[in-house]
Amino acid sequence: MQNPRTMADIIELSPGGLHEQAAARLRAMLVEGRIAPGAKLNERELSEALHVSRTPLREAIKLLAAEGLVDLLPNRGAVAVKLTEADVRHSFELLAELEGLAGELAAARIDDAGRQELRAKHYEMLACHARGDLSGYYRLNALIHAGISAAADNPVLASTYAKVNARVQSLRFRTNQNEAKWQRALHEHGQMLQALDARDGLALRALLKQHLEHKRDTVLELMRTGALPQQAQS
Is the domain defined by 7-80 classed in CATH 3.50.50.60? Predict the structure, then answer.
């Protein structure tokens, strides 16, 4: 899959909201693995790469730390989050329940415009898959999941979901680098939209939970085979 441009490359920085835009590019670098899990964030190198001074960069790092993508460690500074197998199991266990609940609520509460918007994103995502554009695919994939969460119309659920999901974004990104698993994920997304169109909340809940369980199993498999790094169990 050839895709020379990544999400971090195409996000342009402008004077307004500089630290938010720096955070967006830094977030993409973390999700796509351009900054390895457990790696220390080098402020000088990142300032040069993002073309920002250290003040907005530090604000961006604080924002990502609040999201759970970065850990602020004593005597080490900012470090890209690195999860153990136990962290992964616990995070995906909770995510499956959160996304399942969001799906059930969304099926009852989403309007026609919302359904059409999600389907449009789905078709864009299919086009990215056809081009082998993993970055574009993941960006749209994340927007679809976030859109279902937003359609549940429960801000407490949405904020909790966003917080937990942030810590496993980079792991979710890597689960589609196997073509067979990528095809399965596409099929599952198609089924989700069918359940949403039918306003079948229980079916959508079950599909989302199964989808997250498949993601969890793939991540754990990659970690155990050494394809993904992890910290030693404590």
Answer: no
At 39-66, the pLDDT tens digits run 999 999 999 988 899 999 999 999 999 8
Residue type, 232: A
Residue 5 is predicted with a pLDDT of 53
Q: Where in the chain is the domain with CATH 1.20.120.530?
A: 85-224
- Give me the pLDDT at residue 11, please: 46
Cα separations in angstroms, 106 against 149, 163, 164, 188, 192: 7, 19, 19, 17, 11
Record: fold of 85-224? Four Helix Bundle (Hemerythrin (Met), subunit A) (1.20.120)
- Give the helix ranges, DSSP H, for 132-200: 134-151, 155-166, 169-174, 179-197
Q: According to the model, what pLDDT value does residue 6 have?
A: 57
Residue 40 main-chain phi, psi, to 5 deg: -75, 135
Asked if 163 and 85 count as a contact pair (C-beta separation under 8 A), the reply is no
Nearest-5° angle of CA 129, CA 230, CA 178?
Answer: 20
What gap in Å lies between CA 42 and CA 61, rounded to an integer? 11
